[in-house]
Amino acid sequence: MKIDGYTRLAAVVATPIKHSISPFIHNMAFEATGVNGVFLAWDIGLEDLPETVANIKRYDMFGINLSMPYKQAVIPYLDDLDEAAALIGAVNTVVNQGGRLIGYNTDGYGFFKALGDFSIKGKTMTILGGGGAATAIIVQAALNGAKKITIFNQTPFLSETIRHANRYIQQTGVPIEVFPIENQDLIQEKITEADLLVNATSVGMDGSSMIISEETRLQKDLRVADVIYQPFETPFLAYARRKGLETTNGLGMLLFQAAKAFELWTEKPMPTDYIWQALQEKYMT
């Protein structure tokens, strides 16, 4: 990687963030494409966020990525939002467009890009969880023309989830239902109606727990996905694979949301096949 007086900077901003693999992905992309850029991880406090955003213009940066807890907090400092970011109410990518800072949310895009040939248009999705990753996926599914979306979330958060779902319905016209995740019988009923089943909770990160019961029936041709990528195959995905279903973990979502950000910054496609191979070697070994 060449660093000189013309090198432009990008960064991921969060706390904590030193564990992030975004520098691995983006610096490999800069080198492979010949773009004169470098990507860093900045662990900052909330009080430093306004100055950090101002530095994007000051230093003519490509932009920044954001992770928790700054995806919502950054919005007041931006000049505009894209459709997905505005509907989600969260930004994971800021793009410096000639001194104007535009906020995007590429998480949902990355999730559906990782599903390859699968299109949610005209299909039904059942999603387990209602947090940040789930919200991005739900909104993108609606924007992509889903026929129907069913959300299962924890009972204490149901009223908030319903409130957000009603806003998505008003904006997109896509029917959305919200139910308690504790009701396994109802989950079974809604899985039977679904073309896509998504685990967007943290259940399974321990490598042993599973979000659905082992008695859950998964019909033929159901597509199954998990936002988790460590472990590479969660018990949820392993169960679906044993049933003969096609599965996708969260590593592709991570790669393709980064690829969209890279393209927005540089106007060049990220060499995702090359980087995917490196990521698989990194996380499967």
Distinctive features:
10 helices, globular, 285 residues, alpha/beta, 39% helix, six-stranded mixed β-sheet
Protein architecture, described:
By secondary structure, this protein is an alpha/beta fold. The protein is built from ten helices and twelve strands. The strands form two sheets. It has a six-stranded mixed sheet, sandwiched between helices. The protein starts with 7 loop residues before the first strand and ends with a helix.
Distance between the termini: 26 Å
Strand content: 15-25%
Major sheet: arrangement of strands: 2-1-3-5-6-4
| Largest sheet features | 6 strands, mixed
Q: What order do the SSEs take from the amino end to the carboxyl end, as H and E?
A: EHEHEEHEEHEHEHEHEEHEHH
Q: Which of globular, elongated, flat, extended, rod-shaped describes the shape?
A: globular
Rg over C-alpha atoms, rounded to the nearest angstrom? 19 Å
